[in-house]
Amino acid sequence: MKRFKKEKYDDLGLDTKSPSNGYRALNKDGTFNVRKENVSFFERMNIFHSVVSMPWLQFFLILGLGYFIINIVFASLYLIIGTEHLTGIYGTTKIDQFIEAFFFSAQTITTLGYGQIAPLNLAANIVAATESLLGLLLFALATGLMYGRFSKPFATIKYSTVAVIAPYNEINGFMFRVVNPKSNQLLEVEVNVNLSIKRENSDLRDFYSLELERSKVVFFPTMWTIVHPISQNSPIYGLKKENLLEKDAEFIVVIKAFDESFSQSVYSRSSYKAEEIKWGEKFAYLAKRDESGISIDVGRIDETFAVDLN
Amino acid sequence: MKRFKKEKYDDLGLDTKSPSNGYRALNKDGTFNVRKENVSFFERMNIFHSVVSMPWLQFFLILGLGYFIINIVFASLYLIIGTEHLTGIYGTTKIDQFIEAFFFSAQTITTLGYGQIAPLNLAANIVAATESLLGLLLFALATGLMYGRFSKPFATIKYSTVAVIAPYNEINGFMFRVVNPKSNQLLEVEVNVNLSIKRENSDLRDFYSLELERSKVVFFPTMWTIVHPISQNSPIYGLKKENLLEKDAEFIVVIKAFDESFSQSVYSRSSYKAEEIKWGEKFAYLAKRDESGISIDVGRIDETFAVDLN
Amino acid sequence: MKRFKKEKYDDLGLDTKSPSNGYRALNKDGTFNVRKENVSFFERMNIFHSVVSMPWLQFFLILGLGYFIINIVFASLYLIIGTEHLTGIYGTTKIDQFIEAFFFSAQTITTLGYGQIAPLNLAANIVAATESLLGLLLFALATGLMYGRFSKPFATIKYSTVAVIAPYNEINGFMFRVVNPKSNQLLEVEVNVNLSIKRENSDLRDFYSLELERSKVVFFPTMWTIVHPISQNSPIYGLKKENLLEKDAEFIVVIKAFDESFSQSVYSRSSYKAEEIKWGEKFAYLAKRDESGISIDVGRIDETFAVDLN
Amino acid sequence: MKRFKKEKYDDLGLDTKSPSNGYRALNKDGTFNVRKENVSFFERMNIFHSVVSMPWLQFFLILGLGYFIINIVFASLYLIIGTEHLTGIYGTTKIDQFIEAFFFSAQTITTLGYGQIAPLNLAANIVAATESLLGLLLFALATGLMYGRFSKPFATIKYSTVAVIAPYNEINGFMFRVVNPKSNQLLEVEVNVNLSIKRENSDLRDFYSLELERSKVVFFPTMWTIVHPISQNSPIYGLKKENLLEKDAEFIVVIKAFDESFSQSVYSRSSYKAEEIKWGEKFAYLAKRDESGISIDVGRIDETFAVDLN
User: Would you say the pTM of this structure is higher than 0.80?
Assistant: First the structure.
């Protein structure tokens, strides 16, 4: 009989010698509960990742601020050169000239170039020609990043809030449910469920890869109930609710899919802790058929009913 | 003897407890016949997917309308500021000033900037500088999406309208034919055929993955006849035409390929219902050889001739 | 003893009932020798593929011509509206006015907008505002395609002109050699060799997948000699040079690799006909070591020397 | 008992008939120590690869220089045509006119188009219209490449400086450690370790693929210790430190991962020479748990302590 492969958990740095219960390695939103220390700023930084992951508001604030600061810098340069070397500057005070130079800079860096203000001498021309080149490059980056953010693939899989232990054929099964709420198709969906439990009389944790009833579907139009059959060679065979709680069990889920809108692979992650498992409950059927075809009530994803376990 | 794996169909939410025959899970164009209910607008929406999938006409109408509305908004702003703070506005009526402001806005947002109209005071300059920044960002998105639409990979595989049951070696086979009508190469083409049939004396459906004579080809220059040999362990072994109709059979096809033009994976889907299967017909040879080489008559993809079944 | 899997060649439409010898399914440059007939223009066309695959000269000619024609069209529109509604048009003859309108159009569509010519009335403004919008969209497409062409991944694998039959361990082997002449890395290189031979006393062809000494390498810095060992279960076991010629043998090679510069998979194809195989020759060693390290003389890729076959 | 597959090393052109010890095939930074000779310039060149791989400073210098040279060329053209055919050129000397034409060219190629200088006659208009078209195309390429560089995926895996031979279960193991210092997630991480050793009494080298305790992890949040168990069928079973040095052993590591920020596969390469292996040392635990959760001290990646070998 093939036993489930037991893997040492500590070599991944996810947990080791945890003094107490209640640890969650993977958060519900797919982020990991591990901090990295003593990584130099240079090693850690990943500008592209930061810019692509930040909220839209922050992105636009940084963009707007950058635009403002660059125009301040170039307005200062035009003032140093002397606004008498720009046509169409009529301000007599320094502050008025600065404002006019500021907007001339804005017209130059966006390559708008109304021309009511224009550079006259060599220095002003050099600054303006440099600014327009810089503008093209910076806006290429900014707009590229904006489109990159907009077209970034992301898995939109929604998980049932709880998992259940329900009868499955002659035995029981660990089950949870996922839906694809979006209209885009997910194809070749692969699911991977790992169990992390505390080793008996030890601070260390063991890490098991769980066998699934089905670990891959070719298409995933709406909903999928993922089942780990608790057969004799399952690491949770014979365990009761209180055992899972004691062992501080965590079921770590990673789903991979090909998203047809983005033509790219996307990954989704979530986890279920022992406290998030309902024993002796079964997920309700969501599919319904009327004259207009089949429909799935996604809002009832968490609906369960009581059943007797095998 | 290895039996075909029978998979419960209902866990995918494609069909369950269907009260009658005549249901099609997958349409000929690859879309699914399942509606999703009670998905919040926020969860459902996928702007990128919508914009990339809509028809070109709709895309250009939205773009044109957006351009029009934004110019209306900014023209109003310039009017609120007062068109006396723009050079080159000669209109004396509000409506004339609005029209001139509208086109000034258009010249600003596209960074065209003729300069025959130009902002004079602080407020007009702020609006114009903001508009040109906004213009760069919005046009980056619009043109990015346009290019994204244009360069979006899509599988262009054409399916034979009908499938056939024809002799295959000593037994019979379920066969259909696909062609690649385009000039681009499809590589590593993988095909996956699933059968959905009604369970006897039940509303539920069973779902089988069908074994194929060949499920992958390294290159696919023109045409491929895909064959499921109806051997003893086929789920349709021994079934007759009327049985397949009774069981409301549906053969669901998913084809994956690497498209060399787009350097990306593409997926194509279609299905054959029991009514779309011709029994005792065979596909005609399409390849022909003359002095200028081999040619395939793609127009004859549906041509069949009668044969005796084994 | 596992026999090589024999596959029917005709279901791929590559060849069937060929009346004579001398047919080549795959050209040396990786294109296929099969024409498709009766494909409607709409089905066949793939604008993206055409634009991305055409030679650079053709691409620039089409671009330049398009720019010229669009300016002709818009210049005509401005003339119909009347050039008196544009400032700065001084031409008195129709032809002069057309030329000035033509360049005004060019300044508008590129969003250059000098402003020495500018629209005055409503009609001219509408045309100019539309033209600048159109310009942004068209140039986004044109420049996107230009960058798409430039950054398109392509396999740059170079094949030895001939293949050889040389001793390999206790038996003989069919061998050819590939090099990566570029400085970019190819990773996870997979090779696939298929043999197409005429069936005895028949016009049909058989298609075999050949077993290789090694069909995948993790990295491919310079050169690789690909070997098909002619063991007892090889389809060419016991065949002589004249047999391969009689059977009009063709060895079809498909190589897949991950190109690190483009971060994408690339495919390369080629083929060897019976005439392009040297019997009793072995490829010369190309690697040489001196104080500055190892070097490979890529220019000697085709160098062979005579050996006795097993 | 399955023996490790021994592969001939020379067919990859990585080394052959090396006259002495001390050769490194793969550098620590993942580049290969093999030169290619007699590759024609045309075959070798890969402009995209060069531009995407060069340092940022070089990229900007080339860009700036290109901008300068193109403006010189077009300024010369305007001078040949005669600056009297441009409005707003006030220079009386050739040098002044050239400078003004230079900046007019800069305003044209960036589509800035202030308009204080503008073309008047046919020739000047043709040059300006051509220049603005060229500008759009060249800047599309330049800014596309800039964004391509910025968004290029790269594996940021950090390797322990040394590898160790440490006890592993009842035997010993060859171990090294990798960390992901960045905040982006790496998924489906696959590792591949190959050993290259000199053949006894020969100049040739043998090449082994090493079996690993675990060769793939689904997610890789922080750190991973990769272990090759030195079992009886390991090619280094029974070898001592001096044997590995004698055989000039090199352990070549290739890691593949899916980078979630870039939604693409990335590869990382490194190698360990016999001199870089510490015998009888074990890597220190880096994970630590306090009230704020788990943390990994990445700075201690190289920390080892002495242990007795089995």
Answer: yes
